[in-house]
Structures are given as C-alpha cells and as structure tokens.
Amino acid sequence: MIELTGSRLTLKQMKDILYQDSKVMLDPKALERVNKSRDAVERIVREDRTVYGINTGFGLFSNVKIDEKDTKALQLHLIRSHSCGIGEPFPEIVSRAMVVLRLNALLKGFSGIRAEVLERFAYMVNNHIHPVVPQQGSLGASGDLAPLSHLALVLLGEGAVWKGEEQIPAMDIWNEHGLEPIVLEAKEGLALINGTQAMTAQGVVNYLEAESLAFDSEWIASMSMEALYGITDAFHPAIHEARGYPEQMDVAARMLDWLNGSSYTTVQGEKRVQDAYSIRCIPQVHGASWQVLGYVKEKLEIEMNAATDNPLIFDDGNTVVSGGNFHGQPIAFAMDFLKIGMAELASISERRIERLVNPHLNEGLPPFLSPEPGLQSGAMILQYSAASLVSENKTLAHPASVDSIPSSGNQEDHVSMGTIGARHAQLIIKNVRNVLAIEALCAMTGCFIRGVDGMAPKTREKYEKLNQIVMPIVEDRVFTPDIQKIAQFLK
Fold first, then answer.
1. What is the total count of domains within the chain?
2. How confident is the model at residue 60 (pLDDT cuts 50, 70, 90)?
3. Which are the contacts of 285, defined by CB distance < 8 A and separation ≥ 6?
4. Which residues carry this modification: 2,3-didehydroalanine (Ser) (predicted)?
5. 303 and 434 share a domain?
C-alpha cells in the first residue's frame, strides 16, 4: 500500500502502482488540508466574492459573473464542453497514471475540491477503473484540458472506461460497483482539468520504459562487441575518470562487467589498434543519454508532486491567486530532451548493426550473417528496417515545445505543446526498442557463429534467455515475429 500525500510520490512508487498493482491510500493530514481548502471555497460562494473559476466563466469568459444557483451547472458544462479529445486513446497504463497523478496533486490541498471526489479517485486506482482518454487535443497549457475532461467525465457517470480490451460506458461500471456518480460542486470541475497530468502521466511511462531500455542497450551492445572482437581498453576506468561524467563512468564499468570472462573481446593492438566510434564511444554516447534520463527524472518527480491547477487557494481562503502553474513548459522541455536522448541510443545501435552485417566491417562473419551468402539474404533487410526507424526518429525528435498557437480569444496566447512532445517520445521509445531488438538478433547470431561457449558468463545468460524465444539466423525466415518477440522481451 502506497500512501499518497501530495508531496512525496516517487517514480519508484509509480512503477509499483502501474506495473505491480500496488494499492493507494490517502494521507489523513493531506485530507485535512483538502477539507480546509474546500471550506474556503464554500465560504467564497456564500459571501458572493468574485473569484475566477468558482463563480466566473473560464478563459476569455473569466469576466462573466455566475450566479450562486448556477455554480454546479457551470462545472458540469465545463467538463462536457471540454471533452473534445481526438484520436486513439492513451494506453490504459497511461490512463491509470493520469488518475494517480491527478489525485496526488489535489491532495496538496490548494484546489478546493471535496475529499469524497479524491476518495473516488483512490477507489478507481485500487479497483482498476481506468478512463478512456483520447490522445490528441491538448495544447499543454491551461492544463491538459481535453484529456483531463475525459478523465473527469467518468466521475460523472459519462464517458467510457476500459474493461479488458473493451471500452464500456462509465455508468455501467458504477452500477456494477453499486456506486453513484459524482455531482460536481463549485470549483471542482476546474480543479479536475487544470493540470499537466496527461503529459506527465505519459512522461512517467516514457521514463520507466526508457530507463529499462537504456540498461538493455548495454548488454545488447556487449553481445555485439563479442561478435565483433571488440576492444575493451576503451572502457578503462582512467579514461572516463579523466573526463569526469559520472554517467559515462557508470556505463563503462557496466560494460566491463558484462564482458568479464569473454574469450572474444580483445585488447588494443591484438587485432587492431582501436574500434569504430559505435563501439569505442559506447560510454560517452550511452552515458550522455543517461544524463538526459537524470534530467527527465528530476523534472517528473517535481511535477508529480506539484499543484498545477488554477486558481490556488492559500491561507484558509483569504488568499486565492490566479496564476499559471498549469503551463506545461517544464515537462515539454523534458519530453523533447528525452526524445533526443533515446533517439541517439537507436542511432548508435543501428551503426553496430551495420558493422555486424557488413562483410567489410564484421571481422570475418558471413556477409549479412547469411547462412548461405547469395542464396540466402540473412540480416540484410534487418539493417534496412533499423535504418528506417532511426530516420523516423529524426523527424519525431523535432521539439514540440518550440511551437505555440494562441487560444481562447488570445487570452491563452502561449502554450507548451508538452503533451504532443510526450506522445512523440513514446513513439521514439517504441522505435528504439525495435532497433535494439534487431541488434540483439544480429548480435546473438554473430555470437552463435563464433560459438557461444566463448561468451562472457553474463552475456551468455542473456543469450540463453533470448534463445528461448527466438533462434539465431540459421536460415532465412520471416523476421517480423522475431523482432516483436524480442521487443516484448525488452518491454
């Protein structure tokens, strides 16, 4: 059980909630803050004070005063009108993350929402009730308005939720659980949708997948090195200490650990003086991607515990301030940076694939790893596929955050496009996984040809695990299922 406080949620805990089915509970002290904030909203309504989002319209309509009798209708209209997401839904795991993150943000007690709404969110997490949320339609400022509106719809008994692979009406799930839908009170609709939880949820899933792939890229590269008689001198600790990047030093140390005991790695001058950059510079390139991951992790863990709606309520309601914490620029930058860092892991991997299949570069392995060169093509087109994915990543890596389009009658005149960046990062990560799967297939084939008995113990163990799901290339076959199986293994 993971206790949500609004301020201490970590990526490790998110991993447990998303992938290990950990349940959540609400911190009693956080609920006290929530109740005080709610009391403040109700007092504002009773006193008929004009406060944005409580008794005014939204965006360019912020100067329109709303009567007390219409405050509930105002919130309902807000959620319905903003539920205009487009395209395929986010994966269910992202939807789950979205609920957790919105719940955690509202537990900070600055939003004026009732505790019963947050308790319903916790019930949804613990009972796997995940909203169906379209991926497109967010500008990433004023919050992820469209995606989060689809999330909020489910509370109202509208919209849809996942049930296995199917989408079913939200009201069906509440009937199944014997619960009534939520009726939103003043400020609650705005509190639910003003925030960055769509881009951050996708960002969390991106990070967790990217971190795993970054580790995988090292043992896969180690297998490639064995197949190519790679020179381990390039990983000597003194080289990396001389430069000083901790991430670079860590990669070099892990590479030496993977390759310890290999009969196939060499030292400088034994077969050649030095390797090409795609081998020799693994610590420098992979290490730089680890630096990117460190930056992304830091920003995500701040945003996961941030109050990102508007307005925010302080000092028991005496101070209600309209600001812009919903603006997604920090996460937009982080996702664009993640795209670049992950794209490079695929880029250098594809160059190792080329070395494995090119008869001029692969240290005596058969051309294209073909069992019968000429009669059989072997891995020739596997390299084409990897090159295609790497090229696609170059277009996806274009930063989304440099774009902005004014909205809401130019009241909201600068936006982050952070959700687009997060979605494109997920596409890049998928492409990286497939490129690494191709490298793994080629590397294991190279090691098979060399003889697996000479492999390092740790890479041999990985080889055996791979060999349980795919065979080395011993005859031309349809390779798409192999790539899919290895990609799933990596995921």
1. 2
2. low
3. 344, 345, 348
4. 142
5. yes
